[in-house]
């Protein structure tokens, strides 16, 4: 038998026509599963050609794998064993070259007899009409129409019908594959948007210094609506970077763009619409054309938690560093102050031992008593300082600023009157602060008594107490005097140190300002001084509301 | 035997000065002893002596830890003055900080460091009496 030629004037029978229309309509129904469609194809073939079996096979690597098989006698769909493709060279050559293998007697046909013992005889098949299924010109499968027992002469109409069905199958397979890719794409897009929508990380694309894309989650994090960030310029982005980092970041980026670096990374804080700052780590990927960057793609990672932890650690570290330094200073002070007393006592005792003169001995004894007193006094001061450091856990309470300052001054009313001191308290009635009252009173007491102690010999002391609001929760309180002043170039770094006095006053023990500083720090504030010899001093300390 | 016609003690600790004067009087080589309460007072005294062309003290005992102008500040300011090389200074302190003791050697005007507490024989040895 030879391959048949298809006549130019195909005429479907009415039955063929009806079946094809039905199949064609089915192919438009999106919900039809591909397995169902294979069922329809094989059943339509069996019905339309009045044959026993129809099957669809796919060529997977070196094997023909049965995808769907309908057997009219069994009335059901089943599958058949795989067939090795290399056993069928003539069969495949024929499929490659033509549009169908038409075998009226399959067991003797040149192209199908290779299947005689493995397939045809076991299945009782006598007639075959096989059509290749192609994708992009290569065979991907075979549509097989098979008949048993009686000799079947395939008509041109049969061939045309089978060919039409094969064409529909090809279209359906392509459509199915496309839908599968689409589904995959939708799925991966959904996964991606799940990541970007719920992540605080983000993507930003700049083209010609203008934002052309920002991932929705990042945009939302910054508090902007969809259209607000389109056409956001690079300059506008820079204006949102924290002042502490903006110059560094600008320099870093320009430096890397100049070098045409493809990838680089930097950290900074960026302000959202509501002026809230976020810590980001941006990894930039940059595309260049003719030496100019065209696309600037950012993967922006949220490092707020990390940064906050870092800042906390840094803060703790610097606190412990300061504490260590204080402790070391304190140890030196203790050792020095105790040593200076004990060394005096040692010298006195030696002198006492060396003399027999009773008058001299008595003199030394008096000195010894004095030294002993000084030593006890020193230890008492040190003890006061230590307990101050230990008591920082005292409860803070809310007090009215003006009334607590006035209360602090009551204790020194007599001195104020006797020394003809003018104290101006320029503080609004409605300021409340959270503080430890005893500490606060001690700060005011020390600063005011200091101002009086070191008054100018030329005029009556005037002391002014002011307050300035620095931030929403922070106040600065200034105590300004017109006294002797302190030589800042000589003593600026030691004013708040222990046992430092600057005026050689006999009753100055050098503890007042040291204690004051400790009190301010225990309340969480800082203290500073500005002063000019002969004009006066201004002590400023901060407090929290 | 070395004789010291004029001796300065620059120290804020009145008790130490009393004791030290006793010790010096026992050594008998010190005629006039003047106590100056801190570095600033000592510095202005020396400047006045220079301006009036008076004699400088033969020896100065300088404490380190003092109010107003401490021993280190005194030595720093002295560096700028024209008569710095005409003085013989001994730093006398109860400090046991090795860095401070070492620092004394950096000043050419400082002849030696005397550790408090001290006594007659130790002083004699250091001063070469």
From TrEMBL, chain A:
Provenance organism: Flavobacterium restrictum
Source superkingdom: Bacteria
NCBIfam families: sensory_box
Reaction(s) this enzyme catalyzes, per UniProt: ATP + protein L-histidine = ADP + protein N-phospho-L-histidine
Cross-referenced InterPro entries: GAF (IPR003018), GAF-like_dom_sf (IPR029016), HATPase_C_sf (IPR036890), HATPase_dom (IPR003594), His_kinase_dom (IPR005467), PAC (IPR001610), PAS (IPR000014), PAS-assoc_C (IPR000700)
Pfam family, one: GAF
SUPFAM superfamilies, A to Z: ATPase domain of HSP90 chaperone/DNA topoisomerase II/histidine kinase, GAF domain-like, PYP-like sensor domain (PAS domain)
Protein name: histidine kinase
Top-level taxonomy: Bacteria, Pseudomonadati, Bacteroidota, Flavobacteriia, Flavobacteriales
Gene Ontology MF annotations: protein histidine kinase activity
Domain PAS: 203-260
Enzyme Commission code: 2.7.13.3
Domain PAC residue range list: 264-315
PROSITE patterns tied to this protein: HIS_KIN, PAC, PAS
Domain Histidine kinase: 333-545
Keyword annotations: Kinase, Phosphoprotein, Transferase
TrEMBL record, chain B:
One Pfam family matching this protein: Response_reg
SUPFAM superfamilies the record matches: CheY-like
Keyword Phosphoprotein assigned: yes
Superkingdom: Bacteria
Gene3D superfamilies in the cross-refs: 3.40.50.2300
GO BP annotations listed: phosphorelay signal transduction system
Keyword Phosphoprotein in annotation: yes
Residue ranges annotated for the Response regulatory domain, each copy included: 6-129
Sites of 4-aspartylphosphate modification: 63
The entry's keywords: Phosphoprotein
Name of the protein this chain belongs to: Response regulator
Source species: Flavobacterium restrictum
Lineage of producing organism: Bacteria, Pseudomonadati, Bacteroidota, Flavobacteriia, Flavobacteriales
């Amino acid at each position: 038998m030879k391959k048949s030629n298809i006549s130019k004037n195909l005429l479907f029978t009415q039955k063929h026509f009806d079946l094809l229309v039905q199949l064609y309509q089915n192919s438009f129904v999106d919900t039809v599963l591909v397995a169902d469609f294979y069922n329809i194809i094989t059943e339509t073939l069996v019905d339309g050609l009045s044959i026993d079996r129809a099957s669809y096979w796919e060529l997977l690597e070196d094997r023909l794998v049965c995808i769907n098989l309908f057997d009219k006698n069994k009335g059901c769909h089943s599958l058949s064993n795989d067939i090795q493709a290399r056993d069928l060279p003539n069969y495949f050559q024929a499929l490659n070259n033509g549009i169908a293998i038409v075998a009226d007697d399959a067991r003797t046909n040149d192209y199908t007899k290779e299947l005689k013992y493995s397939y045809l005889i076991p299945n009782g098949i006598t007639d075959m009409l096989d059509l290749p299924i192609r994708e992009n010109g290569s065979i991907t499968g075979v549509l097989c129409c098979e008949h048993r027992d009686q000799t079947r002469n395939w008509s041109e109409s049969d061939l045309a019908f089978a060919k039409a069905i094969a064409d529909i199958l090809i279209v359906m397979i392509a459509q199915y594959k496309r839908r599968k890719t689409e589904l995959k794409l939708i799925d991966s897009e959904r996964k991606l948007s799940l990541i970007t929508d719920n992540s605080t990380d983000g993507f930003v694309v700049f083209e010609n210094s203008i934002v052309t894309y920002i991932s929705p989650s990042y945009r939302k994090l910054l508090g902007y609506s969809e259209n607000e960030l389109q056409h956001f310029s690079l300059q506008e982005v820079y204006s949102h970077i924290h002042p502490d980092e903006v110059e560094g970041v600008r320099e870093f980026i320009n430096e890397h763009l100049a070098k045409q670096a493809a990838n680089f990374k930097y950290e900074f804080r960026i302000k959202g619409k509501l002026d809230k700052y976020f810590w980001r780590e941006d990894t930039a990927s940059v595309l260049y054309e003719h030496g100019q960057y065209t696309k600037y793609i950012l993967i922006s990672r949220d490092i707020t938690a990390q940064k906050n932890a870092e800042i906390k650690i840094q803060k703790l570290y610097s606190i412990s560093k300061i504490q260590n330094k204080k402790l070391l200073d304190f140890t030196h002070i203790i050792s020095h102050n105790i040593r200076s007393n004990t060394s005096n006592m040692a010298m006195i005792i030696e002198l006492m031992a060396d003399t027999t003169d009773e008058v001299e001995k008595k003199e030394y004894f008096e000195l010894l008593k004095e030294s002993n007193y000084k030593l006890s006094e020193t230890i008492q001061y040190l003890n006061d300082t230590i307990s101050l450091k230990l008591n920082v856990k005292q409860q803070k309470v809310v007090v009215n600023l003006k009334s607590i300052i006035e209360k602090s001054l009551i204790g020194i009313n007599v001195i104020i009157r006797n020394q003809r001191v003018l104290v101006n308290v320029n503080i609004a009635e409605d300021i409340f602060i959270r503080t430890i009252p005893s500490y606060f009173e001690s700060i005011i007491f020390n600063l005011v008594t200091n101002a009086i102690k070191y008054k100018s010999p030329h005029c009556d002391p005037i002391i002014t107490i002011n307050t300035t609001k620095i931030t929403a929760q922070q106040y600065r309180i200034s105590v300004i005097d017109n006294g002797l002043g302190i030589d800042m170039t000589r003593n600026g770094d030691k004013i708040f140190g222990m046992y430092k006095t600057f005026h050689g006053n006999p009753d100055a023990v050098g503890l007042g300002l040291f204690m004051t500083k400790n009190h301010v720090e225990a309340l969480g504030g800082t203290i500073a001084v500005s002063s000019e010899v002969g004009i006066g001093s201004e002590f400023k300390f901060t407090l929290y509301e | 035997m070395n004789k010291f016609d004029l001796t300065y003690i620059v120290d804020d600790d009145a008790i130490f000065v009393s004791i030290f004067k006793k010790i010096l009087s026992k050594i008998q080589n010190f005629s006039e002893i003047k106590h100056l309460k801190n570095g600033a007072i000592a510095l202005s005294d020396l400047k006045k002596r220079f301006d009036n062309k008076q004699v400088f003290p033969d020896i100065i005992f300088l404490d380190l830890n003092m109010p107003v102008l401490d021993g280190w500040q005194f030595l720093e300011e002295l560096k700028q003055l024209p008569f710095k090389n005409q003085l013989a200074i001994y730093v006398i302190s109860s400090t046991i900080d090795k860095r401070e003791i070492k620092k004394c050697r950096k000043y050419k005007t400082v002849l030696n460091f005397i550790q408090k507490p001290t006594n007659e024989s130790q002083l004699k040895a250091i001063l070469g009496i």
